[in-house]
Design a protein that fits this description.
The chain is α+β, with helices and mostly antiparallel strands and 251 residues long. 35% of the residues lie in helices and 21% in strands. GO terms for molecular function: acyltransferase activity, transferring groups other than amino-acyl groups.
């Protein structure tokens, strides 16, 4: 397998990859107020997409653009014998940079389109930014202050914005390779920050050297195990976890 930078021309392929990897990931469905898990997609895309599918693709494409706007980087993995198929992807933002920091980034990246009432609407923005991201920031800032009394802040870290590995390539240590690949960009002295939304995923990160520094439950009783509302499944009474993790290394 080879790892390289994703090109801007590959944003659609990256968006489809994330769309399919996160079909039943609760927070992605919760942000979008999804009634059911969306159907997977293949490239080339069909002429007609559901509103749920097109909105999800817009979200991942806007995230890619926002990552580039803030000086971050996107790394993709593919089988050497099939360089046209992405089997892993990681989005990173470097120390002192986070997405949508600039006043015009929400426009340049295309995130504003998600606020249309037929897409995520205002509720989607509130869930994504004012609830989910705010919780991550609160837990991360508290952890960094506790770690060294405020010498380092959460924004001093390398931040793993998003990572996924295709089912066909799991069990080969690819997530660990992607994390080490990103870490190599900034050096061993820089802590790496990320969040997980499932305990089994957090366990994978623990094996790569991360420790849990904060956990909080949100969306209590709002959605089912997949983050949806109309699948006939019981809603998760205790809520879903946001698990913030850090690999401190020599920081």
């Amino acid at each position: 397998m080879d790892i390289r930078d994703a090109l801007p021309a590959e944003d659609e392929a990256v968006a489809v990859f994330f769309h399919n990897c996160f079909l039943d990931t609760w927070n992605h469905n919760w942000h979008a107020s999804a009634p059911v898990v969306p159907e997977p997609l293949l490239l080339p895309l069909p002429r007609t997409l559901t509103t749920a599918q097109s909105s999800r693709l817009l979200f991942y494409a806007a995230l890619s653009q926002a990552t580039r706007l803030c000086g971050g980087f996107i790394r993709i993995v593919f089988f050497t014998e099939d360089p046209s198929t992405i089997v892993g992807c990681a989005m990173w933002t470097g120390p002192q940079h986070r997405i949508l920091d600039g006043p015009f980034d929400i426009l340049k990246s295309g995130f504003y389109k998600l606020m249309a009432p037929w897409r995520w609407g205002v509720r989607g923005y509130v869930r994504l930014d004012l609830q989910f991201e705010s919780t991550v920031n609160k837990l991360a800032n508290a952890a960094f202050k506790k770690h060294d009394g405020g010498k380092h802040k959460a924004r001093d870290s390398l931040y793993l914005q998003m990572i996924a590995v295709h089912a066909s390539a799991r069990g080969r240590g690819l997530a660990g390779r992607l994390i080490e690949d990103g870490r190599a960009k900034v050096g061993e002295d820089v802590p790496v920050l990320l969040e997980a939304t499932r305990e089994k995923v957090a366990a994978v990160y623990k094996r790569s050297g991360f420790e849990v520094v904060g956990t909080e439950l949100i969306a209590k009783g709002k959605v089912d195990e997949d983050g949806c509302t109309k699948q006939g499944k019981s809603r998760v009474a205790e809520g879903h976890p946001i698990i913030v993790m850090v690999d401190w290394r020599r920081s």
